[in-house]
Amino acid sequence: MTETGKRLLSHLPPKINRQGEIVSALFANEEETGALEKLFAYGETVKKAYSGEKDVYKMDGDLLDQVMEFFSFFERFYEETDASFIKRNKSILVRNGDVTFGTTWNVKHVFEYYFPKAKIFLLENVGRWEDNILINSNFESIVPEEVAKWNLSGSEISESGSFSGAKGVSFTSNNGTVSQNAVVEKDNIYFVTCMVKGNVSFLVKGASGDLKHLYSIGEAMGNESGQTRSVSNGDWNFVQLFFKADKTETITVTVQGTLGSCVDLVTLDQKKKFPCFVVYVWFDQVTIGGKTLHLSQSGEDPIPGLNYEKENYFGKSFFSGTSGRNLGAEIYQDILEMVKSAGTAADIVLLTRETE
C-alpha cells in the first residue's frame, strides 16, 4: 500500500472495516488498486512532473502533449516522436532569436529556418497564380496561341534562361526585348513582378504610346521611380514595380536585357483590396532531369549506401508531421497558414529547375 493510501484510510472512522471489499476498492488496499489511491498517486506524479521540469522542450510523452496543446496550437501527429514534435514547435515559435511575428520578414525567417537548403523570396502584393493577367508567365506552355502571346526580339525562350521549370527567357543581344499586351482598367494599380538575372530594364507603354510612370519596390531597385526602371543582379532576384492606370486600355509590358541576361516568371497583378503575398521556395542547387529529387534532412548529399532511386525529398521531409507525407506543396502550405496574419491571402510556390 502506498503512503497516499495509508493517509486516506487513516481519515476514516474507527468503526469502518478498512479491509472491507467496498472500502478497499474505493479508497486503498495492499494491491494499490483503490480508486482514490490511484487518483491521488497520479495527481502527485503530475504535480512533480510540472514542478520538476520548467523547460517544456525537455518534457516528454503525455506531459509534453498536455503542455504543448495548452500553450500552442500544436498537436502530435500519429506515431510522431517527441523530437519531431518539439522541432516543429520550435521552428515556428523559436527562430534563433527572431522576436517579430506576423510580419513579412517573420514569414521569410520561418521558411529560412525550416528550409536552410532553399532560398526564400517573399513577394508582396502578388496574388495566386491564377490571378495573374499575363499569359504563359513561366514560358513553359507548348500551346501555340499561348507561346505567341510573347513578342521576342533579340531574345529567346530557352533552358538557359530558366529560373524554375524547364524554360525562361535569355537575351541574345544587348538590346533584346520580351513583351506582352494586356488590358488594364482605369484607376486601378497594377504590379509587375518577375525574377531576373543580369542587366534588365522595364517599361510599360499605353495604347497611344505614352510611357507609364513606374514605381519600384524592394531591395533590388530601392524605392525609386521613372518611366524606365533598370536593375543589375549578379544572381537571380525578384523585381517588383507598380503603376496606376489612368484609363482603361491595352498596355504593353516590356522587359529589355543585355546579352546573357535572363528573366522568368513575369506576372501582372491588379492590386487587391486586402493584403496578399506569395512565398517562392527555390531549390537553386537542385535540378530535375529524369531522376527523383532528393535533399538530405541531415548531412550533405550524396549519402553513402543510400538508394536514391527510392528516395524523394517531399516524401521524406514531412515538416508538418507524418500525416503530411507525400502531400507535396500542401506540407509547405500548412506552415504558411500557421505563421501568416489573419485576413492575409498567401500562397506558396515550390521552384526547381527541370533541366540536366
Could you walk me through the main structural features you see in this protein, from its secondary elements to its overall organization?
This protein is α+β, with helices and mostly antiparallel strands and 356 residues long. Helix content is 24%, strand content 29%. The protein has nine helices and 13 strands. It has helices spanning 3-10, 21-26, 35-52, 61-71, 82-93, 104-114, 144-147, 313-316, 329-339; strands spanning 119-124, 151-153, 155-158, 168-171, 176-184, 189-205, 214-217, 225-226, 229-244, 249-257, 262-270, 276-287, 345-353. The strands form two sheets. Strands 2, 3, 4, 5, 6, 7, 8, 9, 10 and 11 form a ten-stranded antiparallel β-sheet that branches. Strand 7 and strand 8 (225-226) form a beta hairpin. The chain is elongated, with a radius of gyration of 30 Å.
Architecture blueprint of SSEs:
Blueprint: H1 3-10, H2 21-26, H3 35-52, H4 61-71, H5 82-93, H6 104-114, E1 119-124, H7 144-147, E2 151-153, E3 155-158, E4 168-171, E5 176-184, E6 189-205, E7 214-217, E8 225-226, E9 229-244, E10 249-257, E11 262-270, E12 276-287, H8 313-316, H9 329-339, E13 345-353
Shape: elongated
Structural class of the secondary elements?
A: alpha+beta
As a percent range, the share of strand residues is: 25-35%
- What is the rounded distance between the termini? 72 Å
Q: Tally the helices: what do you get? A: 9
Number of strands: 13
**Which percent range fits the helix content?**
10-25%
